[in-house]
Amino acid sequence: MNICTSALLTAQLLRRAEPVLSVSLVPVVVVAPHEDDETFGCGGLIALKRQLGVPVTVVFVSDGGGGYQEGTTAPPDIVVTREKEALKATGILGVPAEQVMFLRFPDTRLSKLDASEWQQLVSTLAECFNQQAELEVYVTHQRDLHPDHEATYRAVAEAVARSSSQVRLFEYPIWIRWMGKFHRNLQWSDFPGLIKVSIASEHATKLRAMQVYASQIGLLGRAHLRCYEQVWEIFVERPRPNHP
Predict the structure, then answer these.
(1) Which CATH superfamily includes the segment(s) 6-238?
(2) How distant is the alpha carbon of residue 21 from its chain centre?
(3) Residue ranges per domain, the chain?
(4) Cβ contacts of residue 33 below 8 Å, gap of 6+?
(5) N vs C: which end of the chain shows fewer Cβ within 10 Å?
(6) pLDDT grade for 13, boundaries at 50, 70 and 90
């Protein structure tokens, strides 16, 4: 597939996606590799669910310590800053602070965790999923062009397979949309069950939550943010993974 701009790729995804007429009342767990992915990818959905009184839990996998300009020295308080931003952003979306989890695995190293760390991550996620008999789990796309994002998907898929809950698994693309191109033989077949959810009623709320991430906005730039400012959010529903 030809390389295209992020705006064009997003338009193509939206055009191909089936609209979802209403969000369900099923509880949600949103799993984010970094503090900001949840709001950029799912902020509108989170706000819609919370407006309906649906329980939402947000799990941040990494500590966010890599969120600074490459080639510069990391600010000493970057982890604390990003966690504060995350609590404020998710609060704007309607998620109580007690429903926000910070697992604090090392940012940029999620794909390099040793066996013990990996099992700890998967077990923690499975335990979280088991808190509900039925739920929807949202996680970054399995081929999202970022090692942390793809590792987070794998951990979630393994945890879902182990979980005793009835789970519907959804992916939200982040870096795919920002990069605006299909890499590594990525094809439309990597987007089965492509759906879009209108967030028009909560669009302003999502934009307010996005602006909270001041530590990241300067790094990402306007072109990046524009990818996630539409009144639709894009998801891919996957069949439940089987336990290996």
Answers:
(1) LmbE-like (3.40.50.10320)
(2) 21
(3) 6-238
(4) 60, 61, 62, 110, 140, 146, 148, 149, 151, 152
(5) C
(6) confident
